[in-house]
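Sorry, can you check?
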Amino acid sequence: MQMKYVLIVGDGMADYPVDALNGKTPLEVANKPNIDALTARGRSGLIKTIPRSMEPSSSIANLSILGYNPKKWYTGRGPIEAASMGVHLAKNDVAFRCNLITEEKGVLIDYSAGHITSEEANELIRCVKDQFEKPNEIDFYAGVSYRHLLVLRDCPDADDILCTPPHDAVGAKITEILPKTKRRTAETTATLLRKMILDSKILLENHFVNVKRKSLDKKLGNMIWPWGQGRRMNIPTLKEKFGLKGAVISAVDLIRGIGVYAGMDIVNVPGATGYYDTNYEGKADYALEALENHDLVFIHVEAPDEAGHSGDYRQKIRSIEDLDKRLIGRLVKNLNRQNCAIAVLSDHATPVSVRTHTNDPVPFTISSPNIKPDGMKRFNETSARKGGFGLLEKGETFMPLFIGIK
């Protein structure tokens, strides 16, 4: 019987010791019997998903986990999200991730506009489109919640622009983190971006969506924030690289976009939100269904990362426990483990103490009928250091290890 593979990524699960948890991490404290049971039946280790000199982004980490060397293939976050949204990029087009953020008194207060709803965000982006779009030059596309897309068509100099990720700049003055240039030749494009950012505040501040949010004491979506730009990516498919037919389950455009480039089928799960309220049970059920005609199913859960960015260790623990009980427990109960390998890992760390991604090695475990257990009983940062796989220095070595080709 042909082997099946389930790859489960808890985004940002890994962490640093938390004082309020008596020096333990959320993974060490969380009640996660199903992940720990997989660990006891398998082998663990640590993995560096972020190459040196590269930013610790989810895009780079997950590309690496799927077996692609980011230094060779990665072009930026924007084009990956564009692929997920079905947005075509020509050779010289540049795609930017475009957040809706909250600005107050010249300061970036919230990178997600209070996790604004998609319905509200669509109204705001429609207003932005009407104001700033130009045929064959500037396009905006509405996404999910605060996550949207800006495309500059035929833009040769965008590679020379430095944009600050908004989740790394909460509390910073807007004037200090506006797009900058590496070379003077890019100044025209940088000026355009800065103007759209600043003008968007005037445009959106008194929009009816924000007027209502203000009356409810919610954070406003009163400014756009482009970042993570890049040109289209060209990677071999998962089938070409590993001989596997793959499917991806995620509510996050970034992960779905990687799946599109890798030739994987995108599985849409009703109620999957990319937040704490995501449909964990639905992800498990749809994964089981996808396994019937796919070799590998990649399940991504964003919630632990959101808790890390919020600095909320309690919510991070709850997110890990929801992942364990509501998704992994439901999945494992209905799997034929005689012909299925399961891997659980964090793509990167998002420590609650720093509220952003870091490039620290992260724990992983693989439970497979072809792997001899290493004696580890718990899944966490400390136990993984003692695991049988040791430390993997390159993230792209994980996939061949998982599917047993080396």
